[in-house]
Design a protein that fits this description.
single chain, 6-stranded parallel sheet, alpha/beta, 5-stranded mixed sheet
């Protein structure tokens, strides 16, 4: 039996590629293409077991709530899915604790990006300083990117567990935030530039040495293998999962 899949945001750039990837994947069947503004009931009518959401920050929670209440697993790749939306998702799932519905919120579906985040968390406790530079196309709605936010969270957790102090910074005057923003105690710089797709550098520094971890997504096709992993594995992970790394043998 194939897994029946609905795609929310099917007319968007990512949505179109997800539809193509699902149609070309063994063991998956695309049963519904749903664009922003269309009735999510189309997913139920089509018999969808898993929904993939690449819509907008304004639409995603409505779609997610509908799917959870109707027993449909949800793979979320929509940008702007910050701590507030995570909390709302947890509350939605708490309304039906025995439903077995899984929700995967992945800041990045690129397998290379997932590995970069893991490597950054492993390396961060060994260096005095760490900062993140994320670079995306200028049509991106959120800053910092979900990938940068998640990377910073993982780095901060690893450094705290190891008893490492915050990165040193003697800056006293920065009224216009030229030093970037903070996620926890990790400084993040966001670049928006035409011609880019999705790129990130993690810069780590110690006395006499630096280490740079960089990942580049040059085409949105790079996200599709991770999306397919999410679709195939989500039924085995009820409840909320944040990060594709939990579905991989890392």
């Amino acid at each position: 039996m194939s897994v029946q899949v609905a795609v929310f945001g099917a007319a968007g750039r990512m949505g179109r590629q997800v539809c193509e990837a699902v149609e070309g994947a063994e063991g998956l069947e695309l049963v519904a293409r749903i664009d922003v503004g269309q009735d999510p009931k189309l997913a139920v009518e089509a018999g969808a077991q898993v929904a993939v959401d690449f819509t907008s920050p304004d639409a995603v929670l409505g779609n997610l709530g509908f799917c959870v209440r109707n027993g449909i697993h949800v793979v979320v790749g929509t940008s702007g899915f910050g701590p507030d939306k995570i909390a709302e998702t947890q509350a939605l799932l708490a309304e039906s604790p025995d439903s077995g519905v899984g929700v995967l919120v992945a800041p990045n579906f690129s397998l290379g990006a997932v590995l970069m985040m893991k490597f950054a968390a492993q390396a961060a406790p060994y260096f005095e300083s760490v900062e993140i530079v994320e670079l995306h196309h200028p049509d991106k709605l959120d800053a910092p990117s979900g990938t940068a936010r998640r990377t910073a969270e993982l780095i901060a957790e690893a450094r705290e567990a190891a008893g490492v102090a915050a990165s040193p910074d003697a800056t006293e005057q920065d009224e216009d935030h030229h030093r970037g923003g903070k996620v926890g105690d990790v400084t993040v710089h966001s670049v928006r530039l035409r011609g880019l797709v999705a790129h990130q550098e993690v810069l780590l520094g110690g006395v006499g040495e630096t280490l740079t971890l960089r990942h580049d997504s040059l085409d949105r096709a790079s996200f599709m293998p991770g999306v397919l992993v999410g679709v195939r594995e989500i039924a085995a992970h009820p409840g909320l999962t944040v990060g594709l790394e939990h579905y991989l043998s890392l």
